[in-house]
TrEMBL record:
Pfam families: GDPD. This is Glycerophosphodiester phosphodiesterase. GO terms for biological process: lipid metabolic process. InterPro entries: GP_PDE_dom (IPR030395), PLC-like_Pdiesterase_TIM-brl (IPR017946). It comes from the Bacteria. It comes from Ligilactobacillus equi DPC 6820. Signal peptide: none annotated. The chain crosses the membrane at residues 26-44, 56-74, 94-112, 124-149, 161-182, 203-221. Keywords: Membrane, Transmembrane, Transmembrane helix. One of its GO terms (molecular function) is phosphoric diester hydrolase activity. PANTHER family: GLYCEROPHOSPHORYL DIESTER PHOSPHODIESTERASE, PHOSPHODIESTERASE. Residues 235-463 form the GP-PDE domain.
């Protein structure tokens, strides 16, 4: 529920930002340069429009999304990592690409049918081509400068990366911001009036100067946060549900034994509370998918669950208790990342029982706990503050602020900005669930601390390749999204 609320706030802010941009461009066309007038007019327009245009706004966002991070990049829009999302769909959900492609074309038709003055499209295309060409030339020049600096000696590498990252952001924002204004100007109908407020100020010049200084400082600070770690510490590799390369049934004892032999940094596993207040190792909330029965863990006792067999990809194993799984992990000296699954049927003292049973074992073996339920994070920090906990995010909308020690983020929505802000607060970031080398290298360039994967060996090799191939120029190219790995 909290994540849905955060998503709603994010979309509302995005909607307000778009209205502000449109009103601002309309004011420029009319010769109005007062910041206060634009802000007041934006508020009036928002009250006039209400929520009626929101469906059209959502259609436009879906259609323009793939180009947003290239052309219409702002801090809010930057949280929509479309390049990673598209790559995720191509790699992980290839069967859906055709359906989504048809839907995209349909939405594009709706958007174009609502935009007037079709003759302007030729001019808009020219503007965008010139702007993108200008960005490419600037970026290529900065990469060439970094290449030259690297070959003069490595002592200035970190400073030069920061300066060049700042140059990249400044030049890109300047060119693409100009493109954005020109594009909106072309699409807007000629307007003779703009309803304004009577807000006036003698200090507009000072306010604008302060805002420009703050914007410049923010660009420099963000660039500093994005300077890569010169120590090349790499990321921890975490086996998703205790398997790698389909070496067993997920969350089973045989899979744990086999996976521990290839020595991942962590094995991630899932725990559900049973009817008698014990814990069983299982991911799904319902047993239908793996065991073929329409029951949930909270409906059965641990002894009943241990009699069941689960099947996956032609392999069979028994359901086991958390005690058995954790004992085996300790015997194999395998660190664990325990995910606490929650349902509305959990007992009120579920976390208390968890801490009583496993807190000492977790601390002794330096294990971690994570959950999609923020209440688990909050309560664990209250009951067992020494346990390292991570908050799981199925999509990246929020900024990293909270009680958690780390974040686990679905890799297709993760951005370098999120990682940088988390690290600034001394919080780690784990990306899940990723296996293809291209995504692994991009995430390593982001500076993630851990990679949750179904293929430990493949990710380990991709990380070795990244370390061997890495350089300042490659880092900047990856920052720009240039596929030169």
């Amino acid at each position: 529920m909290l994540l849905l609320l955060e998503l709603g706030i994010f979309l509302a802010c995005l909607y307000g930002q778009c209205i502000y941009l449109i009103v601002g461009v309309a004011a420029i066309k009319m010769g109005i340069t007062s910041l206060w007038v634009v802000l007041g007019s934006t508020w009036i327009k928002l009250k006039q429009l209400g929520w009626t245009p929101v469906p059209f706004f959502m259609v436009g966002l879906a259609v323009l999304g793939p180009g947003i991070t290239v052309v219409y990049h702002t801090p809010l829009l930057g949280k929509l990592n479309w390049s990673m999302l598209l790559h995720y769909l191509m790699v992980e959900k290839s069967s859906m690409v055709l359906i989504l492609g048809i839907l995209y074309l349909f939405l594009l038709y709706i958007l174009l049918s609502k935009v007037s003055r079709r003759s302007d499209w030729r001019q808009i295309i020219k503007l965008n081509l010139v702007g993108i060409f200008g960005v490419g030339i600037c970026d290529a020049g900065i990469l060439g400068l970094q290449f030259f600096i690297d070959h003069q000696g490595g002592q200035w590498s970190g400073v030069s990366i920061w300066l060049n990252l700042t140059l990249i952001q400044f030049s890109n924002q300047l060119i693409l911001g100009t493109m954005m204004v020109l594009n909106i100007s072309q699409l807007l109908p000629v307007s003779k009036s703009l309803q304004t407020t009577s807000i006036q100020s003698r200090y507009q010049g000072l306010v604008v100067a302060v805002l420009l200084i703050l914007a410049g400082g923010a660009i420099g600070w963000e660039s500093w946060l994005n300077v890569p770690d010169s120590g090349q510490r790499g990321a921890e590799i975490i086996s998703h549900r205790g398997v790698s390369q389909q070496n067993g049934v997920q969350n089973s004892l045989p899979a744990l034994i086999r996976t521990s032999q290839i020595k991942p940094d962590y094995v991630e596993t899932d725990l559900h509370e049973t009817r008698d207040g014990q814990f069983v190792v299982l991911h799904d909330e319902n047993l239908q998918g793996l065991a073929g029965i329409k029951r949930a863990p909270y409906q059965l006792t641990l002894k009943q669950l241990e009699k069941l067999h689960v099947r996956e990809k032609g392999q069979t194993a028994s359901l086991i208790s958390a005690d058995q799984y954790l004992t085996m992990a300790q015997k194999k000296k395998q660190r664990l990342l325990l995910e606490i699954k929650t349902t509305p049927h959990d007992s009120r003292k579920m976390l208390t029982h968890f801490c009583q049973h496993y807190q000492a074992l977790i601390l002794r073996n330096n294990w971690m706990v994570h959950s999609l339920d923020y209440r688990v994070i909050k309560d664990l920090k209250s009951e067992a503050p020494q346990i390292k906990v991570a908050y799981l995010l199925p999509y990246n909308v929020i900024y990293p602020i909270g009680l958690t020690d780390a974040y686990g983020v679905q890799y297709a929505t993760l951005t370098r900005e999120f990682v940088a802000w988390a690290h600034w607060q001394d919080k780690q970031v784990y990306a899940w669930t990723v296996s293809d080398p291209a995504s692994v290298k991009k995430l390593l360039a982001f500076g993630v601390d851990g990679l949750v994967t179904d293929d430990v060996q493949r990710v380990r090799q991709a990380q070795k390749d990244y370390r061997r191939q890495n350089s300042s120029v490659r880092y900047l190219a990856n920052y720009l999204g240039w596929p030169i790995w």
